[in-house]
């Protein structure tokens, strides 16, 4: 098995990248690197933050020496944080095929407004998120600012987008144009989840069409929000259990000392 990325899924968030990951896994490419693999790994979050600082703050050149430690074990790279390094990925892995997942801009914007933007930008959902981050500083408290930064590096400040959604749509379209300008046409497949099916993807990758299988669909807006809420309420439940245990110990000690 080749230990380097063979497929780069550079479509932006909420364009069907999760469904594309499942499709590529079905075609034999294995699991992908994506934001979900970073979420509960503070060491990897720190590594990506260092790369983001190197590129966007210090304007350093990055290549395989920097990318391989994070990506070499995967044959597919999809979604953020990888797409922030689209130019570096395309140059570092010249044999990799590139897929640009696309979505109608208005539909994409509505999906963002229903999921990622309210989850990462105030208000209203962010109040509960912020409290959860304080209760879980090394987990969710580390991940949420990281995830917000990854989006803002492409779309701009999320607070601004809440007030002027059309700004996000324009930047989304500009991002897609940047990918088209970056990748040679013979390496690039523009793909619409839910419309194009297996045939163009398999032809592009040189794989046989799995006739017996429907193209996968995953990670719709509701599942994202439900998953986020479950994680946050899980943090609250763990905190409540710890607080209750502490209260029992404290009361026991108080009673014990009071009887002396």
TrEMBL record:
Keyword Nucleus: no
InterPro entries xref list: P-loop_NTPase, Sulfotransfer_4
UniProt keyword annotation of Cell cycle present: no
Segments passing through the bilayer: 239-257
Superkingdom to which the source organism belongs: Eukaryota
One Pfam short name: Sulfotransfer_4
Alphabetized UniProt keyword annotations: Membrane, Transmembrane, Transmembrane helix
PANTHER family registered for this protein in UniProt: P-LOOP CONTAINING NUCLEOSIDE TRIPHOSPHATE HYDROLASE PROTEIN, P-LOOP CONTAINING NUCLEOTIDE TRIPHOSPHATE HYDROLASE
Name of the protein described by the UniProt record: Sulfotransferase family protein
Species of the source: Mycena chlorophos (Agaric fungus)
Lineage, opening ranks: Eukaryota, Fungi, Dikarya, Basidiomycota, Agaricomycotina
């Amino acid at each position: 098995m080749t230990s380097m990325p063979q497929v780069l899924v550079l479509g932006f968030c909420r364009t069907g990248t999760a469904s594309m990951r499942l499709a590529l896994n079905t075609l034999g490419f294995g699991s992908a690197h994506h934001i979900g693999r970073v979420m509960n790994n503070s060491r990897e979050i720190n590594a990506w933050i260092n790369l983001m600082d190197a590129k966007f703050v210090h304007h350093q050149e990055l290549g395989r020496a920097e990318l391989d430690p994070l990506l070499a074990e995967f044959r597919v790279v999809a979604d953020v944080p990888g797409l922030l390094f689209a130019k570096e990925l395309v140059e570092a892995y010249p044999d990799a095929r590139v897929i640009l997942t696309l979505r109608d801009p208005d539909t994409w914007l509505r999906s963002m407004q229903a999921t990622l933007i309210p989850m990462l930008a105030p208000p209203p959902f962010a109040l509960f998120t912020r409290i959860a981050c304080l209760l879980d500083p090394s987990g969710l408290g580390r991940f949420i600012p990281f995830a917000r930064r990854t989006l803002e590096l492409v779309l701009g400040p999320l607070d601004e987008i809440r007030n002027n959604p059309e700004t996000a749509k324009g930047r989304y379209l500009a991002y897609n144009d940047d990918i088209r300008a970056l990748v040679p046409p013979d390496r690039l497949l523009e793909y619409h989840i839910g419309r194009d099916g297996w045939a163009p993807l398999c032809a592009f990758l040189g794989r046989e069409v799995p006739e017996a299988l429907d193209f996968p669909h995953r990670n719709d807006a509701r599942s994202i929000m439900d998953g986020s809420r479950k994680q946050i309420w899980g943090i609250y439940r763990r905190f409540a259990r710890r607080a209750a245990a502490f209260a029992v110990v404290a009361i026991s000690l108080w009673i014990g000392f009071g009887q002396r």
